[in-house]
Amino acid sequence: MPIGHQDTVKRDRMVLRWLARHGAETTPDSARPLLRHIAQVLSEETGRGITAWEVDHAIWQAARSGR
Length: 67
What we know:
There is one protein chain. By secondary structure, this protein is mostly helical. About 65% of the residues lie in helices and about 0% in strands. It contains three helices and no strands. Helix 1 (about 15-20) packs across helix 3 (about 50-65) and helix 2 crosses helix 3 (about 50-65).
């Protein structure tokens, strides 16, 4: 993932498995726009600019901790 690109996320197995466990069966190609969409929705709901990278990072942290 290029440094400084907050909208570019990895579509790795951990993220794909986490999404599938939470009802979002997705492919590597469809995961990137899905994470961008999630970031947009969260940004609108919270009134704070949330990036796709932050969503990816939160998924990684949740997956590592078993949540």
